[in-house]
Amino acid sequence: MSPVLQCRGLRKTFHGSVVLDSLDLDVAEHEVVALIGASGSGKSTLLRCVNLLERLDDGTIHLGGEHITDPRADADRVRRQIGIVFQAYNLFPHMTVLQNILLAPVRVHRRARAEAEQAARTWLDRVGLGNRAGDYPDRLSGGQQQRVAIVRALVNNPRLLLLDEVTSALDPELVGEVLSMVRELKGDGMTMVLATHEMGFAKQVADRVVFLDGGRVLEQGPPEQVLGDPVEARTRQFLSRIIEAGRL
Amino acid sequence: MTITDTWRPSAVEQERIAYRRRRAIRSVLLAAASTAVLGTLLAVGVTNSPGWPRVKESFFDLAVAQDSLPAILDGLVLNIELLICCALGAMALGLLIAVLRTLRGPVAFPVRALATGYTYGFRGVPLIIVLYVMTLGVPGLRLSGMPSTLVLGGLALVIVYGAYLAEVFRAGIESVHPSQLAAARSLGLTYRQTMRHVVLPQAVRRVAPPLLNDTVALQKDVGLVSLAGPIDAVRAAQIQVAEHFNFTPYIVAGVLFVLLALPLIGVTDWVTLRAARRQGARS
């Protein structure tokens, strides 16, 4: 079966510094891939490039066989098939939780309002936020906001969900509620690529861990192998620093 | 949330409350005393000045005030009508120009250039000159269906204030964080939909205070159309001054303008507060 996401030779530079350097990555349907690596290793940039929020310097990305980095491709149509959740939630502060979630289904996907609202409320109930539909984002905790942001992406039934360090801005006790939601999504068979610093979580939820270093895939494989018995010296060095910081 | 437990302030807290209350009373008394002293000094200084009786007679004559009020109020109606039309027109024009300036792509280049040139040009030209050109120059073209001087004057105000408001709106649009655009575009919203549903609602709310501030300024400038003929409140006051050989009508017009500005200013504060409250500033 052809992969849902196929990245070939991705290159991206910012002001002369190379962030992605001939990077290759495939993601199969229902697969959960965790991107790990130091800050600046290109995790977030990779996700933003896949979502066409950044323009590549070189390389190609195919989504479900379609060449999406072709300049003739309709970027808006491509983005409709991909959900992304940001580190800082990026909810719209002038809209209620429900309005945030319904904006895309109603305006972009032209779904009937009642049907979309039904779907939104089902999701909210499922993540324990059924009673917060009418609240503005500022009145929610960070963990609640992040769960709303995930629902906002999911309600459009994306083929691929990108999670960009979704727990980095959260207090430790709020991290759990977001991670258990991601674990449930894995149970649903959602194809996901997540950039994370939570090694323990990567170990639990990922089918494959990809270690990025200097904009390249340095090492990848099953979590037990990459996190437990890495081949590359750089990976070992990175992991030992993480262990020192008490995050594994 | 209602507090249902049986908490009563402790002795320490009661003492703190009592102390804070004493401080509050003390500061109110002090403020009153200092205001009274300053006010008395000012009043005594002004009324004891050698020219006060003449100033009082020529600026604060009650009989003249009563006599001139109807004419000035007639003029004020024109001010209010013009203000409403021009404020709405200038805001619509300003918003349009601000949005046009954010357009990207080669096709939009002439539009963008035109919008930029407009904001540069009309913020530089004195309002009075635009007013003269519109009310005295344009009718000279003798085109059929030429609107009245009043409409032309109003257009001059809309054109000049539109340029200022465009910059206010643009500041608001640029103050919306790029992450909001990223979030909207990533949901598949087009550029137009992102502007309409995500950027503009936040931008307009943020610039509401400076926007209404410019509206208050416009309120005073609408009177300038009287240079081209129509009689507004200030012009009416001027006529009354000439009739009575007394300056009181100017004071009357001034007070009326302040009264007119108060509700506008009140609305600004209310709009700002309401937006803040809705977004959960109260806890």
Largest sheet of chain A: 6 strands, mixed
Q: State the strand order across the main sheet of chain A.
A: 6-7-8-3-9-10
Kindly state the percentage of residues in helix of chain A.
25-40%
Mean pLDDT of chain B: 87
Total DSSP helices of chain B:
10
User: What is the CATH architecture descriptor of the largest domain in chain A?
Assistant: 3-Layer(aba) Sandwich
CATH architecture of the domain at 76-231 in chain B: Orthogonal Bundle
The structural domain count of chain A equals 2
Q: Could you name the CATH homologous superfamily of the largest domain in chain A?
A: P-loop containing nucleotide triphosphate hydrolases
User: In percent terms, what proportion of residues of chain B is strand?
Assistant: under 5%
Report the radius of gyration of chain A as a whole number of Å. 18 Å
Proportion of strand residues of chain A = 15-25%
The unreliable regions of chain A are none
Q: What CATH first level of the largest domain in chain A would be assigned?
A: Alpha Beta
Secondary-structure element series of chain B = HHHHHHHHHH
**Fraction of residues in H or I helices of chain B:** over 70%
Distance between the termini of chain B: 10 Å
Name the CATH superfamily assignment of the domain at 76-231 in chain B: MetI-like
CATH fold-level name of the largest domain in chain A: Rossmann fold
Instruction: Tell the overall outline of chain A.
Output: globular
Helical region count of chain A?
A: 9
Structure description:
The complex is a heterodimer of chains A (248) and B (283). With 248 residues, chain A is an alpha/beta fold. Chain A folds into 2 domains: 1-81 and 161-248, Rossmann fold, CATH 3.40.50; 91-157, no CATH class. Chain A has 9 helices and 10 strands. Chain A has helices at 43-50, 75-79, 97-107, 113-126, 142-154, 172-188, 199-205, 223-228, 233-244; strands at 5-14, 17-27, 32-36, 58-63, 66-67, 82-85, 160-164, 192-195, 208-213, 216-221. In chain A, strands 6-7-8-3-9-10 form a 6-stranded mixed sheet, sandwiched between helices. A 4-stranded antiparallel sheet of chain A has the order 2-1-4-5, with helices on one face. In chain A, a hairpin with a 2-residue loop joins strand 9 (208-213) and strand 10 (216-221). Chain A is globular, with a radius of gyration of 18 Å. By secondary structure, chain B is mainly alpha-helical. Chain B has a domain at 76-231: MetI-like fold, CATH 1.10.3720. Chain B has 10 helices and no strands. In chain B, helix 3 packs antiparallel against helix 9 (233-244). The radius of gyration of chain B is 27 Å and the shape is flat. Chain A binds chain B through residues 48, 51, 53, 76-77, 79-80, 82-84, 86, 88, 90-94, 103-104, 107-109, 135-139, 152-153, 156, and chain B through 179-180, 182-190, 193, 197-198, 201-202, 205, 278-281.
